[in-house]
Each structure stands twice: as structure tokens, then as C-alpha cells.
Amino acid sequence: MSIQKNIALCLLLVTVVPDYATYATKWIVLKDCTVLVNGSTNINKFTCSVPDYGSNDTLTCFRNDNGKVVLMKGALDIPVDGFDCGNAMMTKDLRKAIHSKIFPYLRIKFISLQRYPALKVMQEEITGIVDIELAGITKQLQVNYTISMDEKGIVCLRGSQNILFSYFGLVAPRKLGGMIKTNDRLDVVFTIHCRIINS
């Protein structure tokens, strides 16, 4: 690489990196978080939940002034053995289907937001990109969010996305010789509450 190109690259890094560093905002994830998985069989619907996901995670948003995509860093590691379907047999079947003994966590890794949210009491709809890792396989998906901030400065981030067992090489549970079949599709909904620092 020529000296001129090296100088140009260094100037670019000096110009870009401080902007991201200056606007790095940390979202401290609080304790009262929930994860829901909604599914259905050929005879009924069901909901499995981790009702009180205790977390010490931190999400970082790298803000900018041009309104473009906001990069993110951070992840939630949700223990799949914490899922409760309200029915012991169904809970056992779900955990077995997603190989919870071998892969004990569902990981949601945050990649980006469409833009930095306004953070007001009124809910704002926004999209983002996440990596979802389940049973050792990772898929990158777009998530639909609603985001709001209450009068105490607590941010509520609610994300939802449809996934398929087959995305992750999994087979939906079946019982009674295949007479009861779980549909391939699951609706994952997670709600996290955060306090923002360094904004």
C-alpha cells in the first residue's frame, strides 16, 4: 500500500472513530425482563415463558448525527431450562426439542437499530437486526421493536420476531404417535427494561 493511501486511511480512522466513541451510549439491562415463546399445535395454542429473566447485561449503542443505522453491541443469554409452558409434559417436550441439555442458552445478540429512538413516553416503532442463536446455530433476523421511556427514565424495549424450528435444524415436538403435532413456527417476544448512561 502506498504512503498516500496509508495517510488517507489514518485520516479516515481519526475522523470516524472519535464520532462513534463520543456518542457511545450504554443501556444497562435491569432485572425485570421477560421472554415469551408463542406456538401452536394442530389442536391448540400454547405459550412458554421465562417470566423473570435476571440479567446483568449491558447493551451499547454507537450513535451518530446523520440519522443512519445505529450499530449495537451486547447480547442476552436466556437459559432455556427456565422456560415454563404451564404444562409439565409440554415444557419437557420443548426443552428436549431444543436440546437444552447440550445447548442451555438462547442467545439474542444485538447488531443494529434502524435509527436511534426518540425515547419518549409515547411508543415508537422501529426495526433492528439481531443474531439469534439456538441449539448451536445462529440466524441473523430483522426484529420489530416498540420502544418507550417512562417518567423515571426507564426504557422499555419490546422485540418480536417469528422463527421456525427448522431454521435451527430442529424438529418440532410430536406426541401420541404423531397425532399431536407442534407447528414449525414460533413467535418470540422479549421485553427488556434498561437505564441509559453516558448519553
Question: Please, could you describe this protein's structure?
Answer:
The protein has 199 residues and is an alpha+beta fold. Helix content is 15%, strand content 49%. It has helices at 3-22, 88-97; strands at 24-29, 33-40, 45-53, 58-62, 70-73, 75-79, 105-113, 124-134, 137-149, 154-164, 174-175, 180-181, 185-197. An 8-stranded antiparallel beta barrel has the order 1-4-5-7-8-9-10-13. The chain has a two-stranded antiparallel ribbon with strand order 11-12. A hairpin with a 7-residue loop joins strand 4 and strand 5 (70-73). The protein is elongated and about 60 Å long. Residues 3-21 have low confidence and may be disordered.
H-E order: HEEEEEEHEEEEEEE
The chain-level structural class is: alpha+beta
In percent terms, what proportion of residues is strand? over 45%
Radius of gyration: 20 Å
Summarize the main sheet. 8 strands, antiparallel, barrel
Based on Cα principal axes, name the global outline. Answer: elongated
Question: What's the overall average pLDDT, rounded?
Answer: 84
- Supply the number of helical segments: 2
> How many beta strands in the DSSP annotation?
13
Q: In which order are the strands of the major sheet placed?
A: 1-4-5-7-8-9-10-13
Topology:
Blueprint: H1 3-22, E1 24-29, E2 33-40, E3 45-53, E4 58-62, E5 70-73, E6 75-79, H2 88-97, E7 105-113, E8 124-134, E9 137-149, E10 154-164, E11 174-175, E12 180-181, E13 185-197
Antiparallel strand pairs: 1-4, 1-13, 2-3, 2-13, 4-5, 5-7, 6-7, 7-8, 8-9, 9-10, 10-13, 11-12
